[in-house]
Amino acid sequence: MVRNIVAIKRVLFDMLGHFNNDDGWAMASHLALSALLALFPFLIFATTLAGFLGAKAFADTAVHLVFDTWPEQIAEPIARQVVEVLTVQRGDLLTYGGLLAGYFASNGIEAVRASLNRAYRVTETRGIIYRRLQSLLFVLIATIGFMVISVFLVFAPLLARLLEAKVAWIGPYMGTITLWRFIIASAVIVLGLIAVHIWLPDGKRKFVTILPGIVFTLIGWLVGSTAFATYIDHFSSYVTTYAGLASIMIALVFLYIISAIFILGGELNAAISRYRDARARVGT
């Protein structure tokens, strides 16, 4: 028991110490701003590509997948504006506008890579062309994934009715389309966390070594977003302070909180690995 407490203490001190000493707060700011700057180009690029391929209902689904897991107080004002932007007809997918949107979206992936490289205490050895192509591939895979989910959600009510007609007892467990959107959005987040922890930082990691950080991140996001939403509801003066900029400022602070928690998840994985390596060296 005492040994476990000592181990937890060492891991936590290592995690927090490295986060603080290696500019974790500044990296969280960088990641939050990069995420916000990448979000809109990604949605524009993805919606334009979906429209080019015939998936006309993609915009609404994409917005739900991105914002359904955000607290309503934070997501609702931004999501409303995003839907208005995405429903504007565009024909520039294969022009510089579409290419630039994809490029700026990939900058968000690069910010995640830089944050995780610091958290895992590794030096990047891969070439810039490889890294940029990998980031663009992440954007493309995310777009295609959102499109597949969009098609699934269009047919989900029909499939649910057919299933209920064949298996009557399953009806109460089918839920609503909103519930399914939330479940799918949560699954996308988990799969996204696994993908970025395994493939974005330099070096190789096994799933078991990244699991603690992913669990920490998910729990931290739930607690942090709930606490911030409560603060917005009861104590915040953002609206009176920032007027028309309030929604953007709220989004930035929210992204800053979840970025710090995300980086701490990587720091936790690195701290656990360092502790295990130290134990292995002394043979205990």
Automatic annotation (TrEMBL):
Keywords: Cell membrane, Membrane, Transmembrane, Transmembrane helix. InterPro entries: Virul_fac_BrkB (IPR017039). It comes from the Bacteria. One of its GO terms (cellular component) is plasma membrane. It is a multi-pass membrane protein. Its main location: membrane. The chain crosses the membrane at residues 31-55, 136-159, 179-200, 207-232, 244-266. It is found in: Cell membrane. NCBIfam families: yihY_not_rbn (TIGR00765). This is Ribonuclease BN. It comes from Pseudaminobacter soli (ex Li et al. 2025).
